[in-house]
Amino acid sequence: MTAAPAPPPAAGTEAGTAAAAGTADATDTAALTGRRRIAFACHADEDTLPGLLTLLRSLALTNPRVCEDFLLLHPGLPDSALDAARRLHPRITARETRHGRWEALRAHGYDTVIVLGPDMVVLGDIGPLLRLRHGVGAVPQLPMPSGEPRVQADEGLLVLQREWLADSTRARLAGDGVPGCVVPLDGRHDLPVRRLHGGLPVPEGTVILRFGGAEGTSTGTGTGHGEEHGPAERARARYEMADDDFRTAYCSLPGPKHPALLTHLARPLLERGATVDLARALALVHTEEGRYREAVEVLLSVTPRADQPRFHETLGSALMAESRHAEAETHLLLATASPAVAPKAFSRLARLAWLRGDDDAARAYAREGLDAEPVNRTCRDLALLPGEPAPDVPGDGQLAHVALFASGQENAGDKVLPEAVRLCFGADTGPRRWLPVPVHRLFDEVALERVNARRALVVGGGGLFLPDTWPNGNSAWQWNVPDAMLERITVPLAVLAVGYNVFDGQAYRRTRFTESLRTLVEKSAFFGLRNHGSVERVRALLPPSLREKVRYQPCPTTVLRRLSPGWTDPVRRDDTVLLNCAYDRAGLRFGHDYGHFLAETAAAVRELGKRAEVRYAPHTPADERFVHDLRREHGIALPVEPLYDLPNAEIYERFRRTRLVIGMRGHAGMIPFGCGTPVLSLISHPKLAYFLADIDRPEWGLSVHDRDLGAKLAERAAALLDDHDAAVADVLGRQRLLWETTRANLAELERCLGVPVEAAGLADPGPPAPAR
């Protein structure tokens, strides 16, 4: 393996620096997660602009899942001349420059810049270039007549990392020989056509074919090589096509495509007459991005046949997300006619019936789904709904609680959350004191009547401000409440420790959310968000008159040992480290870096295994992908403790007795922290950085994109294990600050809601005995 070259004296740093230093603001999500920003760069003038268009087409058609920023460098072309490139790519950024391709060295907002030429055509997978992390990637060439390898930096491929985006790099690459900063790439990544003389075929596996060089340069669509290089010319000619032919070719490719690129290329085709398949493909992209209304509009722009079940399932799901329930049911029923689609359609119908309050219909649809697919988890859970609802008998001082009430093998963190919120009000967390109001169920007249018969309504906790979990058109966040129903709540309402849970690269795209949010804040007697990052993001969405109502209230899971009556800290801890990873929305979490993350984590696990037993603690069954990938790719087998199968008391016990928890999920950090256990966070979501900033310990977090993740993780974990008593004391000191904020807020809640809040008087369990 090639050693990483030493950086220049004025080396830059990766985007994760801001997160590590705790200096990034809450809206700079890429800095908080350390996600790499990647761009392509290419210089073109009037003569070579046609070649650039061929390059763009070839890049899209051979790498349909890739759509990074594309820096179009030019010497001063009129803006209209660049329109042809913009039609082919949605993320073109034009930069006028006198420095030619070397303007790429000034792209300081990026972590990796891949410099291409307009004389190139992409024939294969460029994934290895996207995954490069060190130095300057280039293919050493053998120019004539010297025969000494060197980098053809003025025309060949360059992959520049952030620390090499400096003018001094150009001088390092000039002259004869391969400088020490170069990471040599295989010749297939930059193959000059001049080597294919005499009509030689293009070698199988070639990734980038370059037509420039000593024997000719690419100007326009002609290469100047003639029949001498006929096979190479024909390889390039495949990508010289009219715009609509290119769009059709891209949209017809099998397999996954990049959402932004598919949207960009499909829309012009749809405007001229959509096919059912193309409309569905675009609608699925909109759905993935939380743009449900646009998905519905695209699907309704075509006329399907009754025997197109996948189309009807997609349309039914989109209509369901827009709370157009009757229409959704019609299309989902049509989809059940296909044996292949029926399980998913029946699971959607069962969920639709449940959220509308019809448990009998939910069970019936779920049983039909199980007949079609006996292992369908959604149908299995809904088929087991209790036959008779619990009697609605308000107890003295009973509170209503809107939350996600997880059961079965659902997220372990979501199981703990409702109990932790209720502990804020006292030790009684059961039905005598609390009326559960499922957050995803439509808040209708029946729910309103039941809530108004209680003393107060508590909403939270958890990351409820999220657009794509059980989406609905009533609020556009997780509580399925229309504004009109919200306004008719007559009891005091408190929002407690809710989080703004949007991922890096994800956003609310509907004004419905901001309207619902405003109504909620206006209605609330108390409005507390679980980290300062969420406070900042939500305040930005509100008018000035409402912003001060939004306050900071730590997640109750972070002070569990203070809230739980009779809590005792362990005298002895197991000699274990618990590790957790998350796989929901994996593309947003890892980008192009999953292989890097897995390899780096494997190195850390091997090193940590010298100090303690590393065990894997998945919060959901899907999290177990990590142990399978780790064993397959790196030969490491970890014992698994499935937290999703445990009751809350046992989850607390697992976290309380281990020496360290390393987690990617928010509550893989917050719950063990609340149990008094040291934590390290693998940051793939801004909320983890928000929490660490709140406790002033940003060094307890590492970006999953960090190029030195393995070494840093092993080093920081070793420090916490080697001086464990000090680490525990630090956790308890940080927790004491969160408890002071919580106690003050609970006293305010008691005043606002008019109900006694017993937890405000709970005593500190006291410092634990030194662990043995």
Keywords:
772 residues; 7-stranded mixed sheet; 7-stranded parallel sheet; globular; single chain; alpha/beta
Mean pLDDT: 90
Assign an overall shape: globular
Structural class: alpha/beta
Amino- and carboxy-terminal Cα gap: 42 Å
User: Strand order within the widest sheet?
Assistant: 3-2-1-4-7-6-8
SS elements, strand count: 22
The total of helices stands at 31
> Main sheet, how many strands, which sense, barrel?
7 strands, mixed
Helical proportion, percent range: 25-40%
- Radius of gyration from the alpha-carbon trace, in angstroms: 29 Å
Spans of at least 5 consecutive residues with low confidence: 9-23, 214-223
Percentage of β-strand residues = 5-15%
Describe the structure.
The protein is of the alpha/beta class and 772 residues long. Helix content is 40%, strand content 12%. The chain has a seven-stranded mixed sheet with strand order 3-2-1-4-7-6-8, with no helix packed on it. Strands 11, 12, 13, 14, 15, 16 and 17 form a seven-stranded parallel sheet that branches. Helix 29 links the parallel strand 21 and strand 22 (701-703). Helix 8 packs across helix 9, helix 9 runs antiparallel to helix 10 (276-288) and helix 12 (309-321) packs antiparallel against helix 13 (325-335). The two termini are 42 Å apart.
Show the helix and strand layout.
Layout lengths: L15 H6 L7 H5 L4 E6 L5 H14 L6 E6 L8 H6 L3 E5 L15 E5 L3 E3 L4 H4 L5 E3 L19 E4 L6 H6 L8 E3 L6 E2 L15 E3 L19 H8 L5 H9 L7 H13 L4 H13 L3 H9 L8 H13 L3 H11 L6 H14 L3 H14 L4 H7 L15 E5 L8 H12 L10 E5 L6 H8 L3 E4 L2 E4 L17 H5 L5 E8 L10 H13 L2 E4 L2 H8 L4 H4 L2 E3 L7 H4 L12 E4 L6 H5 L3 H15 L4 E4 L8 H10 L13 H10 L2 E4 L3 H8 L4 E5 L2 H9 L6 E3 L5 H14 L1 H30 L19
